[in-house]
């Protein structure tokens, strides 16, 4: 099939609530990596007072403080657009607070349980200690993505139900708190690597792009991202 | 000044000795270690040292050190002013500053955002100046919504006058429980952290400088002081030009109008304060220009996305060369994610050098912004690579300190 005919729609969910720390980096990385494959992109930023379009190909959810996270979960549940998009098979990539709210429950500002939006079979609560630092994990082999590297900054503990698989086995860092990091099912993927997680993990960005276009995509030159990855992986190994 | 109890006098004296030794050992200005020892010997030392003085606390995400300096300068007509001029902005630094100026009847203390409630309680400060809140290094700084909530609680319980920037919705919310407030329209350029109402979470609508929540009654208060461009309108409608200000950029004009509002509280009129603000030319190395082999290197400190926006505002016009240096040590925040909140596209069309311990993070970011750049191992390589003339250097905290040490600590 002709690659140049590919066109995808990227939807950034609630940058006014879920964008605390460089989350737009994931949008930028996807747009650029798509463009270099001749895939045209259209990106929509959906604020929390707008309805979520159901025709997106990749949906991004970022991190947030406790209150914005609770508000975002309430609005996404009331809106229902993300659920429809998920039924249609759209790819969803969620980090940190966005990851937690995809589950059935997460911890609020006083640690109280807050209902999530139920797109992933996970349940999160508040841990005893904040996990702050570099995180490294070996990705589930069937996803065919190299070792992930990122930075985590959260106090969440996430339990995975039978409906999801862990994204990676934790090598460095805390992740879900049980030796694994993140979770996925179908084309929905969540991680505790916060902020611009796709910058250091072009393999993960390409996985989302493959899901979105429905076929393999050719490799591209990744020299800066590659050098950055190498440096970060070396920094935590020493 | 009231006499200190013997134990407190001893605490002050030992603290000073420790500070002097720390300076002699070349380990900074000694204000942290001096205060630490003082507080250890007398946990109530800060309260005792604050007694019978008129104190101002200055807090914000950005501009604390500069505004503290501007206020201190404009307060000189009142007599000696105690201040923590070197950015040691926690209680240890406050103790040192007050102990070093025992006779000063006034004090201006820069205060870390998290410490505002505690320091306010311990010192009973007369005036608190609150300027802006935006995303900062989140592995060490507090979440800002939480922080503003703590300010609310502390101010509600205190008998203090607040000078607050009403163009920042989160600051407005944080300040609005105070018994008396002077609202200053000091401007807000970074808006990415204030799309939602701090009171109820609803969307904030903006029209010109005004903002209001669509769902509840929270809205921008009517300002008492207004900054418009280079001019300031004081309460009562008198207007003043900020042309005497030496510190560059709109962020410093914001800092200046806050300073004028603070000193007016102590009876210093703008016509007296303005020329004194003009005497401040650089602050702890910020905005300093150093000469090196025919290059005039100007040092700009930027620690977070809002700070970068203000640094870009004062750059030499394109195609003036720029060197960027990024570290990720403790004081910088160990996480570089924030680089992706800075819009580096503004640097297109200039020669750009990237350095610092995290230059590869910077490289990945600049590449994604389609900025042409050269990665170099240290700042010296960048300096020598530009032709003689001007070079702007933007660096985050420890990177800035390294460069400052390398090219002379001009204060």
TrEMBL record, chain A:
It comes from the Bacteria. Keywords: Cell shape, Cell wall biogenesis/degradation, Glutamine amidotransferase, Hydrolase, Ligase, Peptidoglycan synthesis, Transferase. SUPFAM superfamilies: Class I glutamine amidotransferase-like. Gene3D superfamilies: 3.40.50.880. The active site is at 96 (nucleophile), 194. It catalyses: beta-D-GlcNAc-(1->4)-Mur2Ac(oyl-L-Ala-gamma-D-Glu-L-Lys-D-Ala-D-Ala)-di-trans,octa-cis-undecaprenyl diphosphate + L-glutamine + ATP + H2O = beta-D-GlcNAc-(1->4)-Mur2Ac(oyl-L-Ala-D-isoglutaminyl-L-Lys-D-Ala-D-Ala)-di-trans,octa-cis-undecaprenyl diphosphate + L-glutamate + ADP + phosphate + H(+); L-glutamine + H2O = L-glutamate + NH4(+). One of its GO terms (molecular function) is transferase activity. Pathway: Cell wall biogenesis; peptidoglycan biosynthesis. It holds the Pfam family GATase_3. Its EC number is 6.3.5.13, 3.5.1.2. GO terms for biological process: cell wall organization; cobalamin biosynthetic process; peptidoglycan biosynthetic process; regulation of cell shape. Signal peptide: none annotated. Residues 9-201 form the CobB/CobQ-like glutamine amidotransferase domain. InterPro entries: Class_I_gatase-like, CobQ_GATase1, GATase_3, Lipid_II_synth_GatD. Substrate binds at residue 130. Belongs to the CobB/CobQ family. GatD subfamily. HAMAP family: Lipid_II_synth_GatD. The lipid II isoglutaminyl synthase complex catalyzes the formation of alpha-D-isoglutamine in the cell wall lipid II stem peptide. The GatD subunit catalyzes the hydrolysis of glutamine to glutamate and ammonia. The resulting ammonia molecule is channeled to the active site of MurT. Forms a heterodimer with MurT. This is Lipid II isoglutaminyl synthase (glutamine-hydrolyzing) subunit GatD. The gene is gatD.
Automatic annotation (TrEMBL), chain B:
Zn(2+) binds at residues 197, 200, 213, 216. GO terms for molecular function: ATP binding; carbon-nitrogen ligase activity on lipid II; zinc ion binding. The active site is at 335. InterPro entries: Lipid_II_synth_MurT, Mur-like_cat_sf, MurT_C. Keywords: ATP-binding, Cell shape, Cell wall biogenesis/degradation, Ligase, Metal-binding, Nucleotide-binding, Peptidoglycan synthesis, Zinc. Residues 301-399 form the Lipid II isoglutaminyl synthase (glutamine-hydrolyzing) subunit MurT C-terminal domain. GO terms for biological process: cell wall organization; peptidoglycan biosynthetic process; regulation of cell shape. SUPFAM superfamilies: MurD-like peptide ligases, catalytic domain. Transmembrane segments: none annotated. Its EC number is 6.3.5.13. Pathway: Cell wall biogenesis; peptidoglycan biosynthesis. It catalyses: beta-D-GlcNAc-(1->4)-Mur2Ac(oyl-L-Ala-gamma-D-O-P-Glu-L-Lys-D-Ala-D-Ala)-di-trans,octa-cis-undecaprenyl diphosphate + NH4(+) = beta-D-GlcNAc-(1->4)-Mur2Ac(oyl-L-Ala-D-isoglutaminyl-L-Lys-D-Ala-D-Ala)-di-trans,octa-cis-undecaprenyl diphosphate + phosphate + H(+); beta-D-GlcNAc-(1->4)-Mur2Ac(oyl-L-Ala-gamma-D-Glu-L-Lys-D-Ala-D-Ala)-di-trans,octa-cis-undecaprenyl diphosphate + ATP = beta-D-GlcNAc-(1->4)-Mur2Ac(oyl-L-Ala-gamma-D-O-P-Glu-L-Lys-D-Ala-D-Ala)-di-trans,octa-cis-undecaprenyl diphosphate + ADP; beta-D-GlcNAc-(1->4)-Mur2Ac(oyl-L-Ala-gamma-D-Glu-L-Lys-D-Ala-D-Ala)-di-trans,octa-cis-undecaprenyl diphosphate + L-glutamine + ATP + H2O = beta-D-GlcNAc-(1->4)-Mur2Ac(oyl-L-Ala-D-isoglutaminyl-L-Lys-D-Ala-D-Ala)-di-trans,octa-cis-undecaprenyl diphosphate + L-glutamate + ADP + phosphate + H(+). The lipid II isoglutaminyl synthase complex catalyzes the formation of alpha-D-isoglutamine in the cell wall lipid II stem peptide. The MurT subunit catalyzes the ATP-dependent amidation of D-glutamate residue of lipid II, converting it to an isoglutamine residue. HAMAP family: Lipid_II_synth_MurT. Belongs to the MurCDEF family. MurT subfamily. Forms a heterodimer with GatD. This is Lipid II isoglutaminyl synthase (glutamine-hydrolyzing) subunit MurT. It comes from Actinomadura craniellae.
């Amino acid at each position: 099939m002709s690659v140049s005919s590919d066109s995808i729609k990227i939807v950034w969910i609630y940058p006014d609530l879920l964008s605390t720390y460089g989350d737009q980096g994931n949008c930028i990385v996807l747009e650029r990596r798509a463009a270099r494959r001749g895939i045209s992109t259209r990106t929509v930023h959906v604020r929390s007072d707008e309805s979520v379009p159901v025709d997106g190909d990749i949906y991004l959810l970022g991190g947030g403080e406790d209150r914005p996270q609770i508000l975002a979960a309430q609005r996404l549940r009331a809106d229902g657009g993300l659920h429809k998009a998920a039924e249609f098979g759209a790819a969803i990539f969620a980090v940190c607070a966005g990851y937690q709210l995809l589950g059935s429950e997460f911890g609020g500002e006083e640690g109280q349980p807050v209902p999530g939006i139920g797109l992933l079979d996970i349940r999160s609560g508040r841990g005893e200690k904040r996990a702050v630092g570099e995180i490294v994990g070996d990705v589930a082999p069937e996803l065919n993505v190299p070792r992930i590297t990122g930075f985590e900054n959260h106090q969440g503990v996430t339990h995975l139900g039978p409906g999801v698989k862990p994204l990676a086995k934790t090598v460095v860092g805390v992740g879900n708190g049980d030796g694994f990091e993140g979770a996925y099912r179908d084309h929905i993927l969540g991680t505790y690597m916060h902020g611009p997680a796709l910058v250091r993990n072009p393999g993960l960005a390409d996985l989302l792009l493959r899901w979105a276009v429905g076929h393999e995509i050719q490799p591209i030159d990744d020299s800066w991202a590659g050098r950055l990855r190498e440096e970060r992986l070396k920094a935590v190994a020493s | 000044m009231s006499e200190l109890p013997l134990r407190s006098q001893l605490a002050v004296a030992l603290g000073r000795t420790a500070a002097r030794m720390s300076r002699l050992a070349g380990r900074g200005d000694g204000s942290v270690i001096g205060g630490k020892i003082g507080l250890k010997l007398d946990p109530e030392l800060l309260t005792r040292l604050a007694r019978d003085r008129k104190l101002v606390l200055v807090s914000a995400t950005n501009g604390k050190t500069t505004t503290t300096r501007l206020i201190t300068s404009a307060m000189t007509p009142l007599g000696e002013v105690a201040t923590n001029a070197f950015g040691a902005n926690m209680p240890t630094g406050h103790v040192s500053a007050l102990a070093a100026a025992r006779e000063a009847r006034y004090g201006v203390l820069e205060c870390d955002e998290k410490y505002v409630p505690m320091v306010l309680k311990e010192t009973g400060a007369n005036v608190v100046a609150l300027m802006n809140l935006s995303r900062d290094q989140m592995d060490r700084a507090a979440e800002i919504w939480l922080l503003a909530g703590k300010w609310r609680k502390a101010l509600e319980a205190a008998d203090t006058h607040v000078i607050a920037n009403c163009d920042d919705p989160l600051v407005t919310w944080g300040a609005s429980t105070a018994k008396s407030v002077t609202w200053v329209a000091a401007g807000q350029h970074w808006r990415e952290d204030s799309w939602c109402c701090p009171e109820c979470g609803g969307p904030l609508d903006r029209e010109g400088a005004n903002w209001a929540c669509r769902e509840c009654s929270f809205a921008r208060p009517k300002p008492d002081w207004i900054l418009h461009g280079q001019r300031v309108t004081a309460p009562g409608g008198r207007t003043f030009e900020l042309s005497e200000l030496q510190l560059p950029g709109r962020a410093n004009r914001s800092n200046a109008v806050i300073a004028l509002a603070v000193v007016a509280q102590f009876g210093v009129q703008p016509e007296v304060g303005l020329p004194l603000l003009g005497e401040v030319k650089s602050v702890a190395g910020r905005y300093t220009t150093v000469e090196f082999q025919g290059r005039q290197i100007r040092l700009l400190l930027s620690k977070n996305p809002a700070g970068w926006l203000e640094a870009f505002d004062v750059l030499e016009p394109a195609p003036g060369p720029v060197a960027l240096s990024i570290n990720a040590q403790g004081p910088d925040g160990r996480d570089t994610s924030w680089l992706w909140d800075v819009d580096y596209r503004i640097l297109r069309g200039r020669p750009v050098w990237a350095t610092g311990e995290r230059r590869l993070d910077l490289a990945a970011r600049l590449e994604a912004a389609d900025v042409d750049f050269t990665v170099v191992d240290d700042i010296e390589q960048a300096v020598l690579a530009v032709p003689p003339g001007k070079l702007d250097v933007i660096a985050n905290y420890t990177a800035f300190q390294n460069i400052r040490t390398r090219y002379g600590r001009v204060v």
